Amino acid sequence: MALDYEIDNKLKSLAAVIDEHGEWLGRATKRIFFAAKYKGQDKLPVPIRFQEWSREAEDYDFIDPVTLQDLKKMYEELHITATGLADKAMYTEDDVTYEEYDHFVSLYESFIQKLRRLEYDCALSDSGMDVDTGLRSPKAMELDITRELERRARRGNPFTLVLARINNYDELRSMMEIEQNKDVLQKVGKLIKKCIRSFDDAYRSSEGEFIMSLKHSEAAGGTAAVNRLRRFLMDEDIVIKKGNEEIPLTMSYCVAEPVPGDTLEDLLENMRYDLDKWDGGDTALEYHEQSPLSRYIDEKN
């Protein structure tokens, strides 16, 4: 119920931004084409709901910071353009040209289209899906794997986690446009889905990082999934291009078989730590449970 209420509020907030801009478009158009009626009045007002929404959206999981920043830039360009056209019509003797008005309308339609897409993404996030990869979301991962850990503790049912990470993801992402980055993530998500069985789960756990949860499987099953993903990546041959530069996409992996008493937070922290100790490349590790004392001794040595 709490999650439904949260999503409902996010959708209502976004719908209010879209509705306000629909009303604003009518006011802007009247000022452009019937400027004489608005002589001496204040300048075209700028809708404020988007600014309020964008501050809230910084904490939303269905929109990444780069997309949000691009949307803010589009909002600014839209309103600078609209104000310029309204001022031209109201305060000068020049007519607004068809090309100028067509550019303004195209900006408006693109802006609203992106907001509509975010409505869809918001609704999809409620289902536990990550909108960029088609895998399950970090929130869903926390609930699902915590449930598996509890089942492991009660019944002794084994399962295995595989952490798969795109090497040098931050660097690669800086080379890509937003849509290219989404395309790469979508391709990786599809390959990961091919690696698991129908009753297994896969998640996007963070930027450039993915988790496979293999039910009723020991560590050997995780290693087999890693080998499948390696093979699929070789066949797909994903290359990131920027100018004349081409960088092949590679991934590193860590396999862990949780034991009773493990927590998801500790497992992820230790798997990431073990993987961070390597320099990247096509690395595959098997994480074995260690006590805090053993881990401390190993680090000192």
Write the SSE topology.
Blueprint: H1 2-33, H2 49-57, H3 65-91, H4 98-125, H5 138-155, E1 159-166, H6 169-175, H7 178-195, E2 201-206, E3 209-215, H8 219-236, E4 239-242, E5 245-248, E6 251-256, H9 264-276, E7 284-287, H10 292-300
Parallel strand pairs: 6-7
Antiparallel strand pairs: 1-3, 1-6, 2-3, 4-5
Provide a short characterization of the protein structure:
This protein is an alpha+beta fold and 301 residues long. The chain has 10 helices and 7 strands. The strands form 2 sheets. It has a 5-stranded mixed sheet with strand order 2-3-1-6-7, sandwiched between helices. Strands 4-5 form a two-stranded antiparallel ribbon.
List keywords for this structure.
five-stranded mixed sheet, 2 domains, Alpha-Beta Plaits, 301 residues, disordered C terminus
Describe the protein.
The protein has 301 residues and is of the alpha+beta class. The protein is built from 10 helices and 7 strands. The strands form 2 sheets. It has a 5-stranded mixed β-sheet, sandwiched between helices. A two-stranded antiparallel sheet has the order 4-5. A hairpin with a 2-residue loop joins strand 2 and strand 3. Residues 290-301 have low confidence and may be disordered.
Separation of termini? 50 Å
**Helix/strand-derived class?**
alpha+beta
Largest sheet: 5 strands, mixed
CATH topology-level name of the largest domain:
Alpha-Beta Plaits
Rg calc: 25 Å
Residues in helix, %: 55-70%
Structure annotation, total helices: 10
CATH superfamily of the largest domain: Reverse transcriptase/Diguanylate cyclase domain
Mean pLDDT: 85
Number of strands: 7
Name of the CATH class of the largest domain:
Alpha Beta
Q: What general outline do the C-alpha atoms trace?
A: elongated
Approximate strand percentage = 5-15%
Which CATH architecture of the largest domain would you pick? 2-Layer Sandwich
* Poorly predicted parts: 290-301
Number of domains: 2
Sequence of strands across the biggest β-sheet: 2-3-1-6-7
Reading the helices and strands in chain order gives HHHHHEHHEEHEEEHEH
